[in-house]
Amino acid sequence: MEQNKIVLPKTYLTGYTGMNISGISQYLKDTDQEEFESDILAAKAEGLSDGEILCSMYAKMCYASLTTKKNKNISKIRGIAANIQGTIDSGHGSVFEHCTLNFLTTNCSRVFTHELVRHRVGSAFSQTSGRYVRTDAINFVHDPILDPVKDKIEKALTYLQTIYQEMENDLDLANIKDFDRKKKLTSAMRRILPNGQANEIGFSLNLRSLRHLIELRTSEHAEFEIRLVFGQVYNLMKDKYPAMFVDAKEEMIDDLLKISFKNKKV
Ligand SMILES: Cc1cc2nc3c(=O)[nH]c(=O)nc-3n(C[C@H](O)[C@H](O)[C@H](O)COP(=O)(O)OP(=O)(O)OC[C@H]3O[C@@H](n4cnc5c(N)ncnc54)[C@H](O)[C@@H]3O)c2cc1C
User: Fold this and answer.
1) 189, 167 in Cβ contact below 8 A?
2) Got the DSSP string for 114-171?
3) Phi-psi region of 68 (alpha: psi -120 to 50; beta: other; left: phi over 0)
4) Alpha-carbon gap, residue 58 to 48, rounded angstroms
5) Does the beta carbon of 97 sit less than 6 angstroms from any atom of ligand 1?
6) Does the annotation mark 217 as catalytic?
7) Helix and strand numbers, DSSP H then E, in the chain
8) The whole model's pTM is what?
9) pLDDT one-digit tens code per residue, 61-86
10) 3-state SS class at 241
11) pLDDT of residue 2
C-alpha cells in the first residue's frame, strides 16, 4: 500500500507559439516590406520572444506600419519592443491573443483546478480524469495556514485511504473485468475523496489572458494555491517575454509573489 503524501504544485512551461520565418519572409517579400526582417533580428537580439514579435507584427500590420512605405500618414516607425509598449498603453489587447503559452501543473488540488477553469476566455484545459484514474495513496496539497492542525489532516487522510481501500475490497474492484463498470465505480468512489487531493492539469492561455490571470490570481485576496501557481507561471514567463511584462510590479505578500501591472487596459 502506497503512503499518503503532502505535496505542493509545480508548474512547467511545455509549449509556446513560434514564428515560421520562411512564411514571414515570403510575406514580406511579396508585399515589398523586407526591411521589417531587420526589425525582427533586432528584437531577437534584444531577447524578445517569437510570440511577442508575432503579436507586434500583427499590430503593425493593422496600421500598415511594418515599414514607412505602405502608409503615407507615417514618416517613421517604432521598433518592436516600443511598439509592444505602445500597444499595451493604448489597450489594443486583442493582438496579444495571437500568442499562446502551454503549461502543465503537477501536484495541484481540485480546489486549484476548479478555480482555474473558471477562466473561460483564451484558455484550454486538460485535467486528470477522476472517472478513469483510481486512487491509490492520497497525495494532498496542504495550505500552510493549517500547519497548527496538520496532524488532524494527516489523520483524516489515513482514515479516508483506509475506507477507500475497504470499499475497493467490498466491491471486488481488483477482479472486475468489465472496464466500463470499473470506471463507473471509480467515478462514484471519488466522492469521498478530499478537494485537496492532488492531480495534474495542462492549461493553455494566450498572452492577453495570461496578463489578466497573473494579476488577478497573484493578488493577496486569491487563494493560497492559485497564488503559488501563478507566481510560478510569472517566473517562467518574465524573462522569456520581457516586453509583455515590462510594466509588472513585483511584491512579496505572505511569502508569495504578487504581481500588478501599471497598465490595466489590456
Ligand atoms: C478573489 C476572488 C474571489 C472569488 N470568489 C468567487 C466566489 O465566491 N464564487 C464564485 O462563483 N466565483 C468566485 N470567483 C471567481 C470569479 O467570479 C470568476 O469566475 C473568475 O475569477 C474568472 O474570471 P473572469 O470573469 O475574469 O473570467 P475570464 O474567463 O478569465 O474572462 C476574462 C475577461 O473577459 C471578460 N468576459 C469573460 N466572459 C464574459 C462574458 N460572458 N460577458 C462579458 N465579458 C466577459 C471579462 O472582462 C473578464 O474579466 C472569485 C475570484 C477571485 C479572484
Assistant:
1) yes
2) HHHTT--TTEEEEE--TTTSPPSS-EEE--GGGGGGHHHHHHHHHHHHHHHHHHHHHT
3) alpha
4) 15
5) no
6) yes
7) 9, 8
8) 0.94
9) 999 999 999 999 999 999 999 999 99
10) coil
11) 84
